[in-house]
Structure formats: C-alpha cells, structure tokens
Hints:
Order of helices and strands: EEEEEEEEEEE
Number of strands: 11
Number of helices: 0
Distance between the termini: 40 Å
Helix content: under 10%
Shape: globular
Strand content: over 45%
Amino acid sequence: QVQLVESGGGLVQAGGSLRLSCAASGSIFSFNAMAWYRVAPGKRRELVAEMTNSGTTNYADSVKGRFTISRDNAKNTVYLQMNGLKPEDTAVYYCAAFFNGVQLGQGTQVTVSS
Length: 114
C-alpha cells in the first residue's frame, strides 16, 4: 500500500513562502501522476497543482505564477513551493498519488495571516 506523508505546513504572514513536502513509500516514478489538493474551511476540495509522470504540470488559476510543483525521484518526494501566500490560501493541503487507484496523505495545515 502506498503511504504519503506531508510536511512543511505552518503559520505564515501574507506575502510569505512555504515549501510543502510529500514523501512516498514507493517510487513516485511509477505513479501516473502526483498532485496537491487543498480543503479550505467551508469549501470543497480544490486541485492546486498536478504533475504527470512525463513532467507535465497543471495549476489552479488561483495559484498560477505563485506556486510550483516539483519532484525528486531519487528521494521519492514531491514538493509544492508556495510564494506570495495570501489569506485565501489558508487550508489543509493534501498530497495525492495516482496509479491504478489513488492515495491521499493525511494533510498538512497552512495558515496565512493578513
């Protein structure tokens, strides 16, 4: 079973930066894609960023130009670099791996103060 462990969340002021990490128990190169989702209070889950096995990336309009998804295959880790954070980015962020199924991590809280 694939296990994903997120880290790097925390409290930051508006305009600040955070880098989230997602460590996978297996080879991320074997996954069809990996992604970051978020769930803000009172809102539905939102796809933030995704990266396919071939390296193609996709971002939510709300984070384009501010967030960057990347991966380190050797470390079986996917990252989400978040710059220019805004209070509306406050949410629990989840890492997801897509293979013949899908697996989510336990989530990490990101809080952006104004």
